[in-house]
Each structure stands twice: as structure tokens, then as C-alpha cells.
Amino acid sequence: MQGGKGIAIGFVAGLAVAGGAVLLLRDEAAAPVSGEPARIAELAEQVRRLDQSVSRLAALTLTARSDSDAAGASPEVAVAGVSQPPVDPARQKAEAKALVAATSMVDQALQMGQWTRAQQHEFNLLAENLDGDEHGRLMARIAAAINRNELQIELP
Q: With 0-12 CB in 10 A as exposed, 13-18 as middle and 19+ as buried, what is 113?
């Protein structure tokens, strides 16, 4: 039942991120008011920190699942009455490691403000082991930072 908790926490965190994005977009559409740019920057930082927390939570959830599977727990998890197909523990462990490494890589690039060809190549190698949703979420973070001119890409 531990997996159900992780999914529920991830779902709630995702809703919080989506709510923050809606507020941010709504604020950007309104005419600027005195002090509003500072509030927008504060909200953007909160959304960024929440996104990092969700990434770490997802990685921890995957790691916990793979650890419980290795301990002999049943790999089938019933969520909301729906039986999930068995999951390969080795695959889960590879996904967890790839998610942690890819998230760390994106976090570091965002802090440095630069995305190089070497980073993209390494990210692509890690992405082979990522779940499609996690890969998309990380790519969205990169794209959003590029659009805000917070991340410069190295062109060929």
C-alpha cells in the first residue's frame, strides 16, 4: 500500500505545481502593477522549488518500490481497484537511478544557466531509462528556462 501513498502524494504535488503555473500565467496576463514583478519572481521560485521536490519524491518512490520488491514484496500493486502488471525490479532500479541523475543534471544546468551539447548527450543516454512522463517533465523544465532566458544553450 506504500506505492499508493507515493502516487497520491505525487498527484497532489502535481496539482500544486499546475495551480502555481496557472497563477503565474494569470499574473503575467494582467497589466503590471507596482510590486507585481517581485511577486511573480517569488511565485516562479516557489514553483521551481516545488518542481524539484516532486522530482525527488518521484525518485524516492521509485527507489522505495524497487527496495520493497527486492525484499520479497509482491510486484503487483493495486491502485484504486486497478491491478497493475508486474514490474521488473531491475527496470525500476534503473529508472530510479536515471531519474535522480537526470534531475540532478537539470538542476545543475539551471543553476549554472548553461546547457551544453555534452549535457544533452548525457541526458539523452539517461532518458533511455526514464519513464515518458518524467522525461517530458524534465524537458519542460529545460524549455521553460530557455524561454525565460535563464538557460543558454550551446549551439553546434
A: exposed
Q: What residue numbers bound the domain in which 22 lies?
A: 2-153
**Amino acid code (one letter) for 81:** G
49 near 17, Cβ under 8 Å?
A: no
> pTM for this structure?
0.47
DSSP conformational letter for 124: H
pLDDT digits (tens, 9 = 90+) for 127-148: 888 888 888 888 888 888 888 8
Alpha-carbon torsion (78, 82, 83, 87), positive or negative: negative
Number of domains comprising the chain: 1
In single-letter form, the type of residue at position 40 comes to: I
151: burial class by Cβ within 10 Å (0-12, 13-18, 19+)? buried
Rounded to a whole number, what is the distance in angstroms from the first to the last CA of the chain? 48
Q: CA dist 96 to 32, 60, 61, 100, 106, Å?
A: 42, 8, 8, 6, 15
